[in-house]
Write a structure and sequence with these properties.
Blueprint (H helix, E strand, L loop, with lengths): L1 H6 L3 H29 L6 H20 L14 H29 L8 H24 L10 H29 L1 H4 L3 H34 L11 E5 L19 E5 L25 H29 L6 H20 L14 H29 L7 H24 L10 H26 L3 H4 L4 H18 L1 H17 L1
Length: about 500
């Protein structure tokens, strides 16, 4: 089954899945940072304007535009009906907040449009957003207006308006970093950094929505026909003969593959039963599985925020001494190790479609990189301090260093579990490696938590940012541990069954 799943997923789809997660990282970073910047000073005046337009356009509208994209991990396992509902809710909230934010600034400026590019683009986004919300209403009742305008033209017009609104709003945000005093105080390099992240967050949803609009047009043309993929089997209840599909048929394109069964073989006594191709896979998923997908994307955003910000503050001051230590342990433990321990997790959005052998290869590569970077970073600090670490952060760091070495050694034994099965069973071997890996990761993230209280971080950030980083780190710790803990629990149950 794993091989079939992997073969049905193209390289381009794997790349799109990675790009979607990268996009979520950028959206999460911009949203987290601006929310923190505005909320810490109070939502009034210009800060209220910045928070409303940023949260409305960058977060809510961006997520709403990607609802129908098949590669969007937030809504991957929802039916089209649920996606439509989510899209409408997010667009109303995002558009409402964006319009309100623009109104706040227009009222503050006595309805005078400034000569700056930021102001002009902001006013254009304000007008386009209002028109887009109105076109969304007409698109929602497209069937009722089919005599006046075709549903296809109606929805296409709404898609074009939404794209124009989003791109204009993101460009206004781009120029807002350089033409407003809020961000100038952070330094020129940070302004450039925020502009780059914002552009990445703009381009990815734009590409997805353009691709999704083509799918929506096709769906509008064939909305009365159920979608059937190349590997789905259509069952015709009531036939009296079996017909096998001809091997000469081109199964690479979308088609129906007939598979007839006898009436008396039908599991349902009724003659007419719902066709199997009408029941899509995501309709059979449990709500908890869908929720875990959402939590995993949220976790990727937290991991991205920690990695991006810590890389920024260490790289801008130079990778030497404590800066090199902080960067290595963050990249090693918070990024590589976090991604490595989630590789075999069934609801990990990055590796869900890979077969098990591929996941195993990715797992040991990421953990080798993470363990090496983390151990090297810890060793640098221990040498600096002469191996005399008295603080909570230092003692936990030594513990994480030792557990990391033990975990990498046990990982090598788990990789060769079939060769050493005469000494220890493969199940017990992998369970021990699982336990060491979880322990190492938990201790490492707790060490990172206390690291925000050190002088290096305090001298480069405000107190409330330290609190934010602590909260995001703890969220990442809990959400990353879900998959490994479930795997360890299943191994323990198997061990106890064998006793």
């Amino acid at each position: 089954m794993g091989a079939e799943k992997s073969n049905s997923t193209s390289v381009l789809q794997h790349i799109e899945a990675g790009l979607n997660v990268l996009n979520q990282l950028c959206i999460g970073f911009v949203t987290f940072w601006i929310c923190w910047t505005c909320l810490r000073k109070g939502l009034s005046g210009i800060l209220l304007h910045v928070w409303l337009v940023s949260f409305g356009f960058i977060f809510l509208m961006a997520e709403a535009m990607m609802c129908f994209y098949n590669g969007n991990w937030w809504t991957l396992r929802y039916t089209r009906k649920h996606k439509t509902l989510i899209h409408v809710v997010l667009q109303i909230l995002g558009g409402g907040m964006g319009v309100a934010g623009c109104l706040v600034q227009l009222i503050r400026d006595d309805w005078a449009i400034s000569v700056t590019i930021h102001s002009r683009l902001g006013f254009a986004a304000f007008i386009l957003c209002l028109i887009s919300l109105l076109s969304g209403i007409t698109a929602a009742i497209a069937r009722s207006l089919s005599r006046v305008v075709s549903p296809l033209a109606n929805k296409t017009f709404h898609v074009i308006l939404s794209l124009g609104t989003f791109v204009t709003a993101m460009l206004a945000q781009f120029y807002g970093y350089t033409q407003t005093g809020i961000f100038k105080g952070q330094g020129q390099d940070f302004v450039i950094f925020m502009q780059v992240v914002t552009m990445v967050a703009m381009i990815c949803p734009h590409q997805y929505n353009r691709k999704g609009s083509k799918n929506n047009i096709w769906a509008a043309m064939t909305e009365h026909h159920p979608a059937v993929t190349s590997n789905q089997v259509v069952v015709d209840y009531g036939s009296t003969a079996r017909v096998s599909p001809s091997p000469s048929l081109n199964t690479s394109r979308t088609q129906r593959l007939p598979s007839f069964v006898l009436i008396n073989e039908s599991p349902n006594p009724q003659r007419y039963t719902r066709m199997s191709h009408n029941k899509l896979e995501y309709e059979t998923q449990k709500p908890w599985d869908r929720f875990e997908y959402v939590l995993n994307v949220l976790n990727q955003m937290c991991i991205g925020f920690i990695t991006i910000y810590m890389s920024y503050i260490t790289l801008r001051t130079g990778l030497q001494g404590t800066g090199l230590h902080a960067w290595l342990v963050t990249i090693g433990f918070s990024f590589f190790m976090a991604e490595g321990v989630m590789v075999h997790y069934g609801n990990n959005v990055l590796t869900n479609s890979y077969k098990r052998s591929t996941k195993t290869t990715i797992h040991w590569i990421l953990l080798t990189l993470g363990g090496t970077c983390g151990a090297a970073g810890a060793l640098i600090k221990m040498i600096q301090k002469g191996f005399l670490l008295q603080s909570t952060h230092g003692r936990l760091g030594i513990t994480a260093f030792i557990l990391c070495l033990l975990s990498m050694s046990s990982g090598l034994a788990a990789l060769c579990s079939q060769r050493v099965k005469k000494l220890i069973t493969p199940l017990l071997n992998k369970a021990f490696h699982n336990f060491l890996g979880i322990s190492c990761f938990v201790i490492s993230l707790v060490t990172q938590y206390y690291g925000y209280e050190t002088g290096y971080f305090k001298s480069r950030s405000a107190t409330d940012l330290q609190i934010l980083m602590k909260c995001v780190t703890l969220i990442s710790l809990v959400l990353t541990s879900i998959g490994p803990i479930k795997a360890f629990y299943n191994k323990l149950k198997s061990i106890f069954r064998q006793l």
